[in-house]
């Protein structure tokens, strides 16, 4: 038997309905907030990610699926969405029509991480990006969208963490101060962080090694060193969160995994998930569009991890499986043929209908009807055909009625009308 690649998974019927539900809810919210969908390819030039995410981030250094295409172009499976969406914004000159673009997307991402609970090598994200707006209102709006989704999915035990990472004006001074701090305790850091502290000291905050986290106790925090503009921007974001009654925790250690973030950074955590507890993260990336060769337009966005969201809701999955409205139990070839035409007609009428086309015994067909969870069963056999009727059985009340054959379709439509659209 050929098996799945490690870290990859199938999403089967029974589970997928929950995923579709989450996607539908999110699509609805995004469109209510004025976002349009964008779909970018899974494969991009490696350079897009090394420049867009940062050459010294974990993702680019060790997690990408990269290979040489013919003619030796280096291609990578996308590890995240923002770089691709920015590329599309620039490549299609979307900014020329309107610098303000609000875009969302959904799809698989690929990272060659160690597979474990809540961590896969192909996982799914829902992303939202806004270009062309500096206003803190937009940072707050994105967080509101995220929290609206959590609310619609009835999550309660989640925490929103927020921080500001400053800008190119105030971050260098912070970086330097942090570097000095780290250098003083360099021997307490893991080998990765020793390297990081020299080239990209902010990355140390993201290290999962506990001794590194301990060494960071007392480290300088960026919020204390923000320039006036960044300070005002951050206060305004927090002020809107208060007005929207969104609870949050200030987390001066939150830096996020990508290099390009500026100012607002946020993360949504769910304690029920255990070690891999981040369900969503995002922030502002004002320098990215320019860094990738576009105009100096600001950006802000978020990514939601669908796998972790779905696992939090997995006990509700059976509730999203669609059951047939009607199961037709037809016995004998004449009844089977007649029923097969009803089956298709009713489906065209929007009534979810199933039947057993193999003409098994009545007992077997009733068992199938029961198992399918159908609300009604329409029974028709040789005797019914002789009498010119079919039997209509309500599976919840067990009541039965006879229906003249030529009225079957109208009768079913009338009786199932309420449930046909759910
Ligand atoms: P983590 O700290 O868990 O590694 P991250 O900061 O790398 O997360 P982001 O790049 O911010 O994650 O991606 C946004 C979301 O995508 C995360 O909050 C998480 O829910 C999800 N995610 C990231 N990596 C994986 C993965 N390997 N498997 C499943 N979901 C993931
Ligand atoms: Mg990660």
Using brief descriptors, characterize the structure shown:
binds magnesium ion; alpha+beta; 16 helices; 21% strand; 8-stranded mixed sheet; 38% helix; 5-stranded mixed sheet; 422 residues; binds adenosine-5'-triphosphate
Structural write-up:
The chain contains 16 helices and 16 strands. The strands form three sheets. Strands 1-5-6-11-10-9-7-8 form an eight-stranded mixed beta sheet, sandwiched between helices. Strand 9 and strand 10 (about 280-285) form a beta hairpin. It is elongated, with a radius of gyration of 28 Å. With about 425 residues, the protein is of the alpha+beta class. Helix 1 (about 15-30) runs antiparallel to helix 6 (about 135-150) and helix 6 packs parallel to helix 10 (about 230-245). The chain binds adenosine-5'-triphosphate and magnesium ion (MG).
Strand line-up in the sheet with most strands = 1-5-6-11-10-9-7-8
Largest sheet entry: 8 strands, mixed
- How many angstroms separate the termini? 39 Å
Low-confidence stretches: none
Strand content: 15-25%
Helical amount? 25-40%
- Whole-number mean pLDDT: 94
Q: What small molecules does this complex bind?
A: adenosine-5'-triphosphate, magnesium ion
Oligomeric state as shown: single chain
Summarize the structure.
The protein is an alpha+beta fold and 422 residues long.
